[in-house]
């Protein structure tokens, strides 16, 4: 197992830089900050230039964010920052305690607690302890109460990117696929009619609606809390998000999750959902959703994420018909099933077997890693 040690104040300095980028609008989530700290820990020599490139590779994914990254780096790590670099590498006088940053897997389990005084979604320093990978891969139904609180902070900090689509309108683009004749001719007037500079256009991109349908029945009790935290994180991503809960009946919780404080939002959800930890009627709940909301703008062409174990107590034929109807209405239908995280799982339950032919993507949803995979699928759902 390959490991490297960073001084704890230096580690906090690296994490603070990631938080600064997030405050300035860059899509820097927990995973990218963790990758940045691992990259710095793996450096043979820690200097300002090496830390710059480690952060740029780990935390900048878009070309338009480079200027903001450079400005933040210059502010956080000034050019005369030898003391800061010494603090990160642990070479300053009175070497502080070290915190081990794991570069590979195969680690022993350790306790994890969010950093004291951390802001919402920023209990990241604790994630960098050597038990982070264990927490990330551990199933939600096996977490202790302390680990569950820690996982809630990490889920709320996930960078959920809403799916996009091409609109009919065009915009200027240096890499567009359509030749812009009008702008090219106008520009040629400055060069005596010679079109030296050609202009191009490309279609604009618009955000697709995202619809989350979360199962809060008794069989999902070990996972519903984490999925609700994911719903809260999705609401932070944009306005075109709708969240519904169901057990034996359907409840819209979009307004409740729109609260700024996660604890207040979850309390309001708990008060609104009267069938929490009750029975499961997936087919009937989907029928109610489609009958009431199928004509709504947030449903047509949306990416729909249905989170359920598929243990239907109603008629499988009704479930199959409603899932097929939902699949035709939506752009993509993603089914997240926590039971799929088991290596021995097979979709043999009557409800799951009936619905699966109409599902575009079938994912697990039993741990933090699977929710990160869901974020990647959403970002690529175009």
Task: Summarize this structure briefly.
By secondary structure, this protein is an alpha/beta fold. It has 16 helices and 11 strands.
Mind explaining what this structure looks like?
The two termini are 39 Å apart. The chain has 382 residues and is of the alpha/beta class. A hairpin with a 3-residue loop joins strand 7 (241-246) and strand 8. It has 16 helices and 11 strands. Strands 8-7-6-9-10-11 form a 6-stranded mixed beta sheet. Strands 3-5-4 form a 3-stranded antiparallel beta sheet. The chain has a two-stranded antiparallel sheet with strand order 1-2. The chain has helices spanning 8-23, 30-41, 48-59, 66-76, 82-89, 124-127, 132-137, 145-156, 181-188, 221-235, 254-257, 262-272, 282-293, 316-329, 350-355, 368-379; strands at residues 3-7, 98-102, 164-172, 178-179, 200-207, 210-215, 241-246, 250-252, 303-307, 332-337, 361-364. Helix 1 (8-23) packs across helix 5 (82-89), helix 2 (30-41) runs antiparallel to helix 3 and helix 8 (145-156) runs parallel beside helix 10 (221-235).
* Most strands sheet: 6 strands, mixed
Low-confidence stretches: 92-130
Q: How confident overall, as mean pLDDT?
A: 81
Amount of helix:
40-55%
* Strands, total number: 11
Helix-and-strand structural type: alpha/beta
């Amino acid at each position: 197992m390959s490991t490297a040690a960073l001084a704890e104040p230096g580690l906090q300095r690296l994490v603070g830089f990631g938080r600064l980028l997030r405050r300035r609008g860059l899509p820097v989530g927990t995973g990218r900050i963790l990758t940045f700290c691992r990259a710095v820990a793996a450096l043979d020599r820690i200097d300002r230039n090496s830390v710059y490139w480690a952060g740029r590779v780990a935390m900048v994914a878009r070309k338009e964010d480079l200027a903001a990254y450079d400005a933040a780096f210059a502010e956080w790590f000034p050019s005369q920052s030898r003391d800061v670099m010494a603090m990160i590498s642990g070479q300053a006088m009175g070497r502080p305690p070290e915190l081990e940053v794991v570069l590979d897997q195969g680690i022993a389990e350790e306790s994890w607690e969010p950093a004291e005084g951390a802001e919402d979604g920023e209990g990241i320093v604790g994630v960098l302890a050597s038990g982070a990978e264990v927490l990330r891969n551990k199933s939600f139904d096996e977490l202790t109460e302390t680990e569950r609180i820690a996982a809630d902070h990490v889920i709320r900090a996930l960078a959920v990117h809403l799916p996009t689509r091409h609109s009919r309108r065009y915009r200027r683009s240096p890499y567009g696929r359509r030749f812009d004749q009008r702008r090219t001719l106008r520009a040629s007037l400055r060069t005596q009619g010679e079109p030296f500079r050609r202009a191009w256009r490309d279609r604009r991109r618009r955000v697709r609606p995202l619809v989350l349908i979360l199962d809060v029945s008794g069989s999902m009790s070990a996972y519903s809390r984490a999925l609700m935290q994911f719903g809260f994180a999705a609401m932070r991503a944009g306005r075109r998000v709708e969240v519904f809960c169901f057990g034996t009946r359907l409840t819209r919780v979009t307004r409740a999750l729109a609260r700024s404080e996660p604890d207040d939002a979850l309390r309001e959800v708990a008060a609104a959902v009267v069938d929490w930890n009750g029975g499961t009627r997936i087919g009937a709940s989907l029928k109610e959703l489609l009958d009431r909301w199928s004509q709504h703008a947030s449903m047509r062409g949306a990416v729909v994420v249905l989170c359920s174990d598929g243990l239907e107590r109603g008629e499988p034929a009704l479930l199959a018909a409603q899932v097929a109807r939902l699949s035709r209405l939506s752009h993509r239908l993603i089914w997240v099933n926590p039971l799929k995280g088991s290596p021995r799982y097979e979709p043999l339950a009557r409800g799951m077997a009936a619905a699966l032919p109409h599902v575009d993507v079938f994912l697990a949803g039993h741990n933090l890693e699977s929710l990160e995979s869901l974020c990647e699928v959403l970002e690529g759902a175009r």
